[in-house]
Amino acid sequence: MSQPPTAATGQRWRAGAIGGLAAGAAMGVVLHAVLGLMPTIGGLVGVRTTLAGWAVHLFNSTLFGLLFVALFDRPFFDDLRADVGGWLSLGVVHSALLGTITGGLLLPTAIALGGATSLPIPTLPVPGITASFEFGAIIAVAHLIYGLVLGRVFAALTLADGGTG
Question: What pTM value is reported for the model?
């Protein structure tokens, strides 16, 4: 028989949603400012606009923040959950997994279902042979930022000292 949710449980779920939203905003700034990807992200739901891209990205980021709680708010991770550094580490692991799954599986599948044969990569500062590497590196940095912001916000909202100790 499962135990009823406590106030602390609700606090962690709220922290996951808020952390995911904040992390998505930080990541989105990189994706939009450097790569101009928001219209492309919006195109995944059939509306190729910057506003739709932001809506999709922030919605997914919030859901991924909740997934963070579901995956890492477990006794197995107690040692890491005790301080900010541990939550930052878990955030980075989470974002690396997300980047691998979304970029390596979900995004190509969505593109294929849409009938496209390749990712519509926007013009990058260095065109040519380095463009694919540059695109991947920027996506990796954006995911790293997501993980760090998620872990930091989550720690600030859940640790007894607000993640300042």
Answer: 0.85
